[in-house]
Write a structure and sequence with these properties.
The chain has 646 residues and is α/β, with parallel strands linked by helices. Helices cover 42% and strands 11% of the residues. It has two domains: 55-355, Alkaline Phosphatase, subunit A, CATH 3.40.720.10; 471-638, Leucine-rich Repeat Variant (Alpha Horseshoe). The strands form two sheets. An eight-stranded mixed beta sheet has the order 4-3-5-1-6-7-2-8, with helices on both faces. Strands 9-10-11-12 form a four-stranded antiparallel beta sheet, with helices on one face. 47% of the residues are buried.
Length: 646
């Protein structure tokens, strides 16, 4: 009996246990299902709502190089707000604007493409370039990917662009605060002109008002004469940087007030170098080497392989800024862009530190022509002057509104400068080599040092390779580039790559001793190719007096069917005083119908009058076009340009 009871009890217990297990299993299954469903729904929600992306703010000061900030080693230039950004981010010791003047530098920044490759290398533009098919300013790409993009407010672009495509808003009222949805990521660019060159266009009377920065504390560059005007000008510029620092602090404060600071990469940089004489417009470090600080936001620190407060020696250029922002935003850049990201996924601090090369360029600057290309590797900088017979100090009306320029030139004309200070107003060598650690102001070229011959050849070759790889369009006179190339400069360059390469080789005859170059130059002067005749004459001008044996071959080109060849013939022959070049040049300017032809011809006239000493008679000039940069030359040559300084 007891055994049966135990048996029934055991069966009952077993039945209850099985039932409980089944019940628990059912509840557990429901729990698992609920968890899986919740996970699936969360995943679907995340698929609909994109992951949070960083914001970007560019704070840009106009016309300043690294030489005016304590952050870069100067004992003056105290900027606590910029220094605070550096403490909370990354300072770049080697950032470069690619070009030393605003329109070219800003267009490079907006497109991430080399200016001489596309055709927007001249300032101010005489015609607008087209970007290659499918390429847009990268601010437009951000907009397509859901960003709100604003610009306040300078553009100064040298390419054709639909501003409504490039920006949601571009004006003095543009701000991230205007975006329609506060959850939208944004890119905002803010420029400040308080450091612009024009702020140093003051009359002598202004010097009666003391600067905040003591003139006694100012250290002048070795190429400047030590005068009260020079000291006052530089002290005044340090004062302007204090104003810029205030603007930086205000923008950062606004981001903090909006609760956005730790979601936003803040870039502070100069739009190119400046702004004392021999900086803006010139391809020296004073014109190209800019400050760059990137504040790293707390919520996106994983995108920057750097500790806050770090400094990087890696080289970056304006072509790299766009790809960097796109990379941080998780957007793939167009294959035609020339730059490479320096922050974001796939970019380590070690990778950045290995970058030690940069390409620079300077071409026409307002009415003043030049063609300079630079290549820097580490501390070594190579400069190629394709028109080195033009002095750096050749007249540019806007520059000489600055008292410091006038003061410097007056002392040159009075023969009161030492050799280093005189360089700015005299011919330049066709190539220069500088050790920037030993010679940061680039006043002692080592190009002629036998101990540096191997390094010189290496850097020369590297620069030549870059110029050929981008099909540098400055091998075409500006008038020819405007008519033939600007529809699509990149495609034009590719189509004519062999011609560009041959013209580059012809131009480089200036780098060999004249006896070695003479035969090839003579052949080029007799060539059926207009551009070969044109460049052969420029090389002859580079040789100067050494090229006198080719004067006879050059004289028939004074009547060449191409006006620009005539200009270069007059330039060479007038430069060595083999002829009076002015009758030929009067004929050109009275015949030319395009602004570009007139600008080139008048630049040669100013060179031959001011540097060589030929006489110019304005009464013999009857122009068909007299506007813009041409008018500036006409004013200067006639002595009618208004003098605002005295």
């Amino acid at each position: 009996m007891g055994g049966k009871i135990q048996s029934k009890t055991g069966v009952l217990a077993l039945s209850l246990a099985v039932g409980l297990a089944l019940n628990l299993r059912m509840h557990f299954s429901r729990l698992i299902f609920s968890l899986l469903a919740a996970s699936l729904l969360t995943g679907l929600a995340n698929a609909v709502e994109p992951a949070k992306r960083p914001n970007f703010v560019f704070i840009v000061s106009e016309d300043n190089s690294i030489h005016y900030l304590r952050l870069y080693g100067h004992r003056l230039g105290v900027t606590p707000n910029i220094e605070r950004l550096a403490a909370e981010g990354l300072t770049f010791n080697h950032a470069f604007s690619a070009a030393p003047v605003c329109s070219v530098a800003r267009t490079t920044l907006a497109t991430a493409m080399h200016a001489p490759r596309v055709g927007f290398q001249y300032h101010r533009k005489s015609a607008l370039a087209n970007l290659p098919p499918g390429v847009k300013p990268w601010s437009a790409v951000l907009r397509e990917q859901g960003y709100y993009a604003t610009n306040n407010s300078k553009t100064d672009y040298n390419f054709k662009v639909d501003m409504k495509q490039a920006w949601d808003m571009s004006s003095g009222k543009a701000s991230w605060r205007n975006r329609p949805n506060k959850d939208m990521p944004f890119f905002h660019m803010q420029s400040f002109a308080d450091s612009h060159e024009s702020r140093l266009h003051f009359p002598l009377k202004q010097m009666e008002k003391p600067t905040e920065t003591s003139l006694d504390d100012v250290e002048l560059q070795p190429y400047f004469p030590d005068t009260p005007i020079m000291r006052y000008t530089k002290a005044r510029y340090f004062d302007r940087m204090k104003i810029i620092d205030g603007h930086v602090g205000r923008i950062v404060k606004q981001l903090a007030e909006d609760g956005l600071l730790e979601d936003t990469f803040v870039f502070y940089f100069g739009d190119h170098g400046g702004v004392m004489p021999r900086s803006k417009g010139y391809a020296y470090e004073s014109g190209l080497h800019v400050p760059l600080v990137v504040r790293i936001p707390e919520n996106f620190r994983h995108l920057a392989d750097h500790k806050r407060g770090d400094r990087s020696d890696g080289f970056v250029s304006f072509i790299d800024f766009g790809p960097t922002v796109l990379n941080l935003a998780g957007i793939k850049p167009h294959k035609e862009l020339d730059g490479v990201a320096f922050l974001g996924q796939g970019v380590s601090a070690a990778d950045l530190a290995k970058r030690d090369e940069v390409f620079g360029h300077a071409d026409r600057f307002d009415e003043k022509f030049d063609m300079v290309r630079t290549f820097r590797k580490g501390k070594w900088k190579y400069i190629r002057n394709y028109q080195g017979y033009y002095a750096d100090g050749l007249q540019n009306n806007y520059r000489y509104r600055q008292l410091a320029y006038d003061n410097w030139r007056d002392l040159y004309r009075a023969d009161r400068l030492n050799p280093v200070q005189r360089q700015f107003f005299e011919r330049r060598p066709v190539e220069q080599l500088f050790d920037l650690e030993a010679d940061p102001h680039e006043v002692k070229s080592l190009a002629g040092d036998p101990d540096q011959a191997k390094r010189l050849a290496d850097l020369r070759g590297r620069l030549r390779s870059i110029m050929k790889s981008i099909n540098d369009l400055s091998f075409y006179p500006e008038n020819r580039m405007v008519t033939d190339a600007l529809g699509d400069g990149v495609a034009f360059g590719r189509k004519n790559a062999q011609q560009v390469s041959r013209l580059s080789d012809l131009a480089d005859l200036a780098l060999v001793p004249f006896p070695e170059a003479r035969k090839k130059l003579g052949q080029a002067l007799r060539s059926k190719g207009i551009l070969r005749r044109y460049w052969a004459l420029k090389v002859c001008s580079s040789f100067g007096e050494q090229a006198k044996p080719l004067a006879k071959a050059a004289k028939p080109l004074l009547m060449d069917r191409d006006l620009m060849v005539r200009v270069r013939a007059a330039e060479f022959l007038g430069g060595i005083k083999a002829i009076d070049p002015m009758p030929t040049l009067y004929g050109v300017v009275n015949t030319a119908e395009t602004e570009q032809e007139l600008m080139i011809a008048f630049n040669t006239i100013v060179y031959l009058r001011d540097q060589i000493g030929h006489k110019y008679d304005p009464e013999k000039v009857k122009l068909k076009f007299n506007k813009g940069e041409v008018y500036r030359r006409v004013q200067y040559l006639a002595g009618t340009e208004p003098n605002t300084n005295y």
